[in-house]
Every structure is written in C-alpha cells, then in structure tokens.
Amino acid sequence: MNKLVHMDIQSTDLEKSKAFYSALFGWRMQQWSPDYALFEYPDGSGGGGFSLVGRMPDPCVEIYFEVEDIEAALAQVVSLGGVIATRKTGIGGGMGFLARFRDCCGCLIGIWSKS
After folding, report:
1. In the chain, how many domains are there?
2. What is the CATH number of the domain that holds 37?
3. 21 near 41, Cβ under 8 Å?
4. Looking at the whole model, is its pTM more than 0.85?
C-alpha cells in the first residue's frame, strides 16, 4: 500500500500558520529554511508549510504518496493517461526525492521515495 507520507500546506504568513497548527493539532514545528517549516504529528509522519508571496492558490495543500521507484511510477502514470508535472527531483538534506503528476482528470499529486 502506498501510504500518505507528506503534505505541504501553503501559507502567506508562515509564523502565523506555525502557531495556528501547533495550537490546533499539537504539531511540533521546526524551521527548515527561511520559507519552509516542517511539522510532525504524533504518529511520526508529517509535512511542511511553505511561505509564499501573493494570493493563496487553490488548492493550497499538496499531498505526497510513497513509492518504491519514482521513475517506474511516473512511467505508469503516463501509461494510465496521466501527465508528468515535475520529474524526479532531489529534496536535499538526505530527505529523498519527489516528483509530481496530474492524474487522468488533472489533479496534481506528489510521489516521494528515499532513493
């Protein structure tokens, strides 16, 4: 089963969002870079918050599912009628790799792998 491993919640005020989700859900927040904070919830999985300038996009949450092999998963996406939006990209800091695709109906979905 490909489990949900990460989500990004975009924000126009990262400090305000960090305080909001910490208070609401008890998430532990860690500043990763000036424009990005990681959060972790009780079961150990988590996500992050992006700081952005301008109007909030809709939707404003991105989700990532774990896969064994990103290249193989992207090939399957294409064979099923989806479109690759972002090729395999290193995250940095030993955090693995991500890619994004649009499914058969245009929904943007992320995938992640350790290697």
Report:
1. 2
2. 3.30.720.120
3. no
4. no
